[in-house]
Amino acid sequence: MLVKKIVTIFKNFPKRHSVAILFGLLMLVSISILGNFDLSDRKKGADLTKKIKIDVLKEGDQFEPIYTSKETVIKRNDSLFTILTKFGVRNENIIELINSKNSNLLSNIEVGDKIRVNLDENNEIKDLLYIDDFQSGVRAGKFEGIYVINKFKNKLEKVKVFKHIIIQDSMYVSGIKEGIPDSVLMDVVYINGWDIDFTHDIRPGDSYSIIYEEILVDGEKVLDGDVLITEFNNKGKKITSIRFDLANGKSEYFSVNGINVKKAFLRSPVKLSYISSKYNLRRKHPVLHTIRSHNGVDYAANKGSPVRATGDGTVSFAEYNGGCGNEIKIKHSEDYTTRYCHLDKYNSRIKVGKKVKQGQTIGYVGSTGLATGPHLHYEFHVNGKHTDPLRVKFPNATPIKSSEKIKFTQVAYGLTSQLNNYKDISLRKEVPGG
Ligand SMILES: [Zn+2]
Fold it and tell me: Do 258 and 351 form a contact (C-beta atoms < 8 A)?
């Protein structure tokens, strides 16, 4: 019974603590036994307790961890041998490990993976952990004088995280301030990149709510998972995107009505991460073009930032052209053309007549032609006429297949209800006394 209890206690302690505690307990047990012999004809109780405290608990040195833990990330040209030698392990001990059964599991160590060892006071390996990724690896431990080596796999746990953000400066900065990881924010930007131009569309008071997953091992976060749902309140309009696992194994995002968020055109030809921070953070309105009457949208970004084609098409123009400077025009269909000005350089593969894909880098931001500083001037033409790229309705958004509609509706209903519940709770907390 007692042993069982002690074992249970150990499970909840980090290993080196357990060792120290075990050592302490053994001392306690032996001292109380010895104490019983010594004090057999004296009164038990208070005296004995006092004695234990003085003799055992005061000798702090004995409670120092007995094992030293060392850890490294595997670099190029590292081998198990060089790493262990660096840790101070003697050659004989390394050879003993390498000659143990299953040591071949440790023969293919890969750059970027982790090795952690616990060494005893003689620098002998007590146990070794090779962590392949957060999920699996190889463990070697010495039991009864023999190294036992085997593979292990950690159990993953997924938790849902909810965030509600009222945009104060930019979508990105407000999100970071609320503790949303960078990779999650980039996913949110990507998912909404066909609906929202994050440089020009965001207004003070806009907000967004998201649910994303975190992946845990032993209760510790090891990875940010997928974004399950995003809901933007942008200029009074609500845009909801829901992740759905399709029957073909792919996952895509759809509106509540089952329309794929992907459209024929991206809202922005410059990725949010490249937009000059001073504009991105401070400006809520488009940078005004001062040179001449304005027919497009400007994106202030550092010189050299990639410019992407907003839709599939064919390059119809790529040369210097007066005030526009280095210019690219892409013809997307009989009706749609986009125009990109002031480029510093063209992507080397861009030539008139070449086909380009949506999102492909066609050139780099510069200030050629009539430009006061590095920025991209972007135009959207429908049937040869200038159209506001921020307001144009994009064609072609494929809806979910009718065979998957019922399942999607269930997923969409589940996620939107969860989001609304979370929102209710968090908004209630924000209202004092409410
Ligand atoms: Zn402009």
Answer: no
Q: Is residue 275 a contact partner of residue 300, using CB atoms and an 8 Å limit?
A: yes
Beta-bridge mates of residue 115 = 72, 130
- Measured CA distances, 256 to 13, 108, 201, 409 (Å): 47, 48, 21, 8
Q: How far is the CA of 181 from the centre of ligand 1 (A)?
A: 33
- List phi, psi (to 5°) of 285: -125, 160
CA of 188 to the centre of ligand 1 (A): 27
What 48-57 contacts at long range (C-beta under 8 Å, 24+ apart), as own/partner pairs, is: 52/28, 55/31, 56/24, 56/27, 56/28, 56/31, 57/24
Q: Distance from the CA of 265 to the center of ligand 1, in angstroms? A: 19
> Ligand 1 center to residue 297 CA distance, Å?
5
Q: How far is the CA of 372 from the centre of ligand 1 (A)?
A: 11
Q: pLDDT digits over 185-243, tens only? A: 999 999 999 999 998 888 888 999 999 999 998 888 888 999 999 999 998 999 999 99
Angle at 337 between CA 321 and CA 330, to 5 degrees: 60
Ligand 1 centroid, distance to 189 Cα (angstroms): 23
- What pTM was computed for the model? 0.69
Q: Report the separation in Å between the CA atom of 341 and the middle of ligand 1, taken as the mean of its atom positions.
A: 8
What's the number of CA atoms in the CB half-sphere (13 Å) around residue 203? 5
